Amino acid sequence: MLAGIVWHWWLGAFLLLASVGAVLQGIVGYLAKVSSTKYPNRRQRRTQGKK
């Protein structure tokens, strides 16, 4: 019975870390996408200039 409790605790800890990582990845990805349109890099500026 003790092994089941310990297993569920580690499983819960892993799922918590995975979900926090997924949320952070979503936030960072969103911010990178939004800021890339506001502050384009050199390649994007060069492409926009040719249009």
Set down the secondary structure blueprint:
Elements: H1 2-38, H2 42-50
Description:
This protein has 51 residues and is mainly alpha-helical. The chain has a domain at 20-51. It contains 2 helices and no strands. The radius of gyration is 21 Å and the shape is rod-shaped.
Low-confidence stretches: none
- The share of residues in helices is over 70%
Count of extended strands:
0
Structural class based on helices, strands and sheet pairing? mainly alpha
Mean pLDDT: 84
C-alpha Rg, in Å? 21 Å
Net shape: rod-shaped
Order of helical and strand elements:
HH
Helical segment tally?
2
Beta percentage is: under 5%
Major sheet size, sense and barrel closure: none
Q: What is the rounded distance between the termini? A: 68 Å
What's this model, at a glance?
The chain is mostly helical. The chain is built from two helices and no strands.
From the structure above, extract its key features.
mainly alpha, 51 residues, single chain, rod-shaped, 2 helices
